[in-house]
Each structure stands twice: as structure tokens, then as C-alpha cells.
Amino acid sequence: MVNYKDLGLVNTREMFKRAVAGGYAIPAFNFNTMEQMQAIVMAAVETKSPVIMQVSKGARNYANGTILRYMAEGAVAYAKELGCEHPEIVLHLDHGDSFELCKECIDNGFSSVMIDGSSLPYEENIALAKKVVDYAHQFDVTVEAELGVLAGVEDEVAAAESHYTKPEEVIDFSTRTGCDSLAISIGTSHGAHKFTPEQCTLVNGVLVPPPLAFDILHEIEKKLPGFPIVLHGSSSVPMEEVNTINQYGGHLEAAIGIPEEQLREASKSAVCKINIDSDSRLAMTAAIRKHLAEHPGDFDPRQYLKPARENMKKMYIHKIVNVLGSDGKLAQC
Ligand code: G3H
Ligand code: 13P
Ligand code: ZN
Predict the structure, then answer these.
(1) What stretches of 48-147 adopt beta strand conformation (E)?
(2) Centroid of chain to Cα 207
(3) Per annotation, catalytic residue among 6, 94, 97, 172
(4) Which of 88, 161, 173, 178 has the fewest beta carbons closer than 10 A?
(5) Dihedral-angle region of residue 271 (phi above 0 means left; psi in -120 to 50 means alpha; beta otherwise)
(6) Residue 158 has what pLDDT?
(7) What phi and psi, each to the nearest 5 degrees, are found at residue 286?
(8) What is the reported pTM?
(9) Is 327 a known active-site residue?
(10) How many angstroms does the Cα of residue 274 sit away from the middle of ligand 2?
(11) Which residues 6+ apart lie within 8 Å of 167 measured at CB?
């Protein structure tokens, strides 16, 4: 049994309170590799931002849960080595799909877990989330639950269409589960293909997707004043990365994300955690493809992973400073 506090990690409670009050959002970046972890820490330290490093079930299968936990412990030490005396780093389980998985993470140093029962019937979602909350709170681990279904693929849970969160359910759900934050569905979705071109409007040669359901977000805020809200599926799928990938041998068609202005607007509301994974994948792939195309003789992974790490770091800093507004928001620098 390892408690996250012994690893120098923090839970989400205090940072969410400050983010909701301050009108900004905390970045939640997924990681699977050392380069992603390094880029996240460098970006958070340079911008003096709290940060959530999140691990999906797929990431645990790929990299091994124990290794990722030690990487998070290493992230805290690395942040200090880079000159940040009081880093605020959360190690979060993304899309936990069972009580057992959440318990395993809590017992092994995670400071926050998500229990995603969003595909279950309402009462079953409540019962599962409450079971996780009751266990997690004994160790001061915070819990994110989800109400409403995002379009796209949530690990093994596929939803062809999203079902927006019903504002009339949020008080009952948050009260009965005791969850610390609530992921909602207002039109975001996972992956790099969030909308079909047919769903978009062509404005000055650019495909603009339909806006997020801000009316639903505002209704939820009214029902739960000050309660931390989470947005999944919030990559913006930058066109320059997609173009670079395609220019250097990739084939990504109709890749469309959430416009950053909408995420900026959401960050000013009770949305205090914004999940970004696909943009990191795109930044990494674009840099690797470009490097290998321009240097066909290179075969040392450091030669192409270094520009990949740089590109991800640039993207993370951009999100923190220009989209979420969490720069300079550490409680103590
Ligand atoms: O929401 C899903 C995250 O992007 C994680 O994706 O399950 O492929 O690691 P993954
Ligand atoms: P994106 O695929 O939009 O990056 O969303 C990531 C996510 O929600 C992780 O839980
Ligand atoms: Zn997600």
C-alpha cells in the first residue's frame, strides 16, 4: 500500500477550488511514455501551473501501472530539480471502468481516480461511483464520476452518438455519489475525428464544428454552484500538426477537433479540468514523421524523440497559457 502523499503528489481538491473561483481550468494530459512525462513536467514548471498527469487503462496495459506510478513520483522530483519548489502534480486514473481497478490505483499511489459508469443505467452508475468514493475518501483520494455519454470511443465503451448530460440529474447524482468532480457531455468527444465534415460549416475555407452546448453547461452550473466540472475529449486537433503528418507520409482524413476559443470560454466557467490526449499524439507523430523524412539515415531514437518532446512541450505550454489560463496558478511557487 502506497499513499500518494508519500510520493509528493497532491489530490485535486484544492486546485479545483481555486480554479473554479479563479475562472481557469487545470490541464489533464494523458501520458504513456517518458517523453510525454518529461514534456508535461517541463511545461508545468515553466508556466508555474498545477497539472494532472493521467493514465488510462490502455496506458497501464502498454507501459505497466507500476512503471507509470514510479514515473509520476519521478515527475515530482524532476519538477523540483527544474527549480519548482512546490509542484502540484496529480496522478489520475482516466476512465476507470471497475471498482477493482480504481482500488488498485488508490492502493498504489494514485491521488485521484475517475470511475466511468456513464454507459451504465443511472442507478448502477450511482452505486458504482459511491462504492469508489467510499473507498477513495478513506485515503483522501479524490474521485471524478461521469454523467452523460460522449460520442466516440471511451476505451471499450463505444457510443455512436453522444447523450448530453441531463441538468435535472446532476444534484441527485453528485449528492448520492459524493463525487468530487463531475465529467459532463456537452458535445466534446474523444479522438482526432470528433465531427464529420457534414456536421461542420465552411467558414473562410475552414471547417467549423457545431458549438458546444453552453446552455447545458450553464444550467448545470446553476444547479451545482461552485462544483468542479470536467470536460473530456477536448483536443483541438491543430491543423498544422495534421498537415505535417500528411505532408510526411501520414494519412489523416477529416481530422476535426474542438475550437480553442470554445475551450477558453469553458475554462472561465465551473469547468476546472480539461482532458487533452489526442493533441499530444498528433504533436509527437508530426515531429517524428518530419524528422525521419528529413533525416532518413537517423536510427537513434533520441534523434527523433527529442524534437517530438520539444513539440509536445510547446503544445502543452500553449494550452496552459493561451487556452486554459492555469499559468502562474501554483499556490506556492
Ligand atoms: O479518453 C481516452 C484517452 O484518450 C486515453 O486513450 O485508452 O487509448 O489510452 P487510450
Ligand atoms: P482527446 O481525445 O480529445 O484528447 O480527449 C482525451 C480525453 O478525454 C482523455 O480522457
Ligand atoms: Zn476521456
Answers:
(1) 51-56, 89-96, 112-115, 142-147
(2) 24
(3) 94
(4) 161
(5) beta
(6) 43
(7) -60, -45
(8) 0.96
(9) no
(10) 9
(11) 216, 219, 220, 222, 223
69 lines ligand 2 (CB under 6 A): no
Instruction: Please tell me the least confidently modeled range out of 66-70, 168-172, 328-332.
Output: 66-70
Q: Residue 160 pLDDT more than 60?
A: no
Ligand showing the shortest atom-to-Cα distance for residue 32: 1
Q: For residue range 80-128, what is the model confidence (pLDDT) as tens digits?
A: 999 999 999 999 999 999 999 999 999 999 999 999 999 999 999 999 9
Ligand 2 closest atom vs CA 237:
3
Q: DSSP strand E in 47-111: where? A: 51-56, 89-96
Residue 234 in contact with ligand 2 by CB distance below 6 A: yes
Q: Provide the 8-state DSSP code for 24.
A: -
Please give the distance, rounded to the nearest whole angstrom, from the Cα atom of residue 233 to the centre of ligand 3: 5
Mutational test site, ligand 1, from 114, 277, 279, max ligand atoms within 8 Å of CB: 277
